[in-house]
Amino acid sequence: MSDSPREEIFSSLQHIAIIMDGNGRWAQRRHLPRLLGHRAGVKAVERIVRATTSYHIPYLSLYAFSTENWKRPQTEVKGLMSLFKFYIRKKIDELREEGVRLRFAGRIQGVPDDIREIMYQAENITKDGERLQLIVCLNYGGRQEILDAIQHIVRESDGTDITDETFRKYLYLPDVPDPDLIIRTSGEQRLSNFWLWQGAYSELYFTSVLWPDFTEKTLKDAIDSFEKRDRRYGGIQS
Ligand code: FPP
Question: Which of 40, 113, 123, 186 registers the highest number of CB atoms within 10 A of its CB?
């Protein structure tokens, strides 16, 4: 048994996934442009990456940009893309030093060339990180991921004997365990096309806190709630 109480407490929690919602409303309430809400959202990302590492939780995934987010005004889309570029560039070395491995999930081919290039670089530079895998879902959609997997399977095989296990191999990051806990901020209570396959048995936690206001304490509240859940995976109460 581990002598670290933290490791023991959270041993059943391998992967936290977050739908970071409410940046726009956070800015609106302060009469600021929406982009400043996203910038404040980056600060929350930094806080939560640190906290997750300190809790010894090995996987954190963040829904940063969905396949549907291209429908937003061009200025906002451009601003978000520059923010991703800025964040990744600024953080690569620090993440590597902290033992964080940065990975991406989504239709990466659809991301602008300059950002895709930096994403590949970041994945390569941080590839040996062993403390935390930080998965940024960018141009990600759960339905699209399932469709991409099916197309891949059809190209590679005759499609017979597809099981849960074999299907999984065609997902974007097959080695990443399913999220144990999916958190959504800002009071909305839906999945919005996030981890549709992987989230089949995830515990869901909704908070009215807007993403830029999300702190270590909000994360801890979510973890405490998770710890009280009885996960049955379709079986009976233990
Ligand atoms: C949803 O809030 C938020 C997004 C679509 C963008 C999330 C991006 C960040 C937090 C930026 C940093 C991320 C990384 C990984 C560097 P919203 O704009 O829909 O808010 P609203 O519902 O209040 O309008």
Answer: 186
Which residues make beta-bridge pairs with 104?
136
What is the rounded distance in angstroms from the CA atom of residue 60 to the CA atom of residue 132?
7
Q: Whose CA is nearest to atom 6 of ligand 1?
A: 64
pLDDT mean across residues, the chain: 94
Q: What tens digit of pLDDT does each residue of 162-199 get?
A: 899 999 999 999 999 999 999 999 999 999 999 999 99
Asked: is 15-143+178-227 a CATH 3.40.1180.10 domain? The reply is: yes
pLDDT in tens, 139-154: 999 999 999 999 999 9
Return the H-helix or E-strand segment holding 90. Answer: helix 74-97
What residue segments make up the domains of the chain, in order of their start?
15-143+178-227
| Count of CA atoms in the C-beta half-sphere (13 A) of 133 | 20
Task: Quote the CA–CA distance of 142 and 164 in Å, as a whole number.
Answer: 16
